[in-house]
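Researcher: Sequence of Methyltransferase domain-containing protein follows. Predict its structure.
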Amino acid sequence: MTSTLYQQIQQLYDGSSGLWEQIWGEHMHHGYYGADGTQKKDRRQAQIDLIEQLLNWAGVQQAQHIVDVGCGIGGSSLYLAQKFNATATGITLSPVQANRAKERAAAAGLSERASFEVADALNMPFADNSFDLVWSMESGEHMPNKKKFLEECYRVLKPGGTFIMATWCHRPLGGEYGQLTNDERKHLAEIYRVYALPYVISLPEYEEMAGNISFQNIRTADWSTAVAPFWDVVIDSTFNFDAIVGLLLSGWTTIQAALSLGLMSRGYQRGLIRFGLLCASKGDVL
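Model: Prediction complete. Tokens:
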């Protein structure tokens, strides 16, 4: 199942990354539209604002060695490397993304400080305690084993370092929330199919998991309202000639993902899809 899933993820991003960069630029993630989601701003600025808001929320003011888990074409990696004058390493399952990220690093004069490779986030090719910032921007939803993913992030994190994750979740379960309805399960299943996801979990589940793994100073937040406008902006951006031509040339996987953008927009509207944040640290070695 894992090898098939990884092939689907690779194909999705191999096929779509070039078009995304052409229309949207280097950042392959949500944008931030203010806490109440009402701020009007340039779409690329909204994506940069999300990075800055995440850093502020997590209290990260400096970093020396960064790993970007699920790096796309290097948007966050290069931004963080420049911001903190740090070294950054990005990993992705997509050879197309890794190669493009290397090209972008060279163009920015950052080849000596930013590197990219094809690697499995559940088995990272790094030594224990390698990075003082582990950054995961919208990659957790792709992980077939969420616990193993968090364990790997913990393993490569230096004592005293910070882990920041932003990921797609479904709504909380149990108690007043109840369980997922059949209709909600069908909605999620369509999102999984289109965006090559094995499953998503709720933010409280991530928080409990992180605690069991020995992360410390765990904090979570739900920024669904702040980022939800993103999907409507993406939908609007597809209604231009370049985007339509690009879609037609990019293959069925990308076309299918574009035709299904409304799944995510409606998911936010009904409260089913949530944008979850988790930051945590690793205790000092005794």
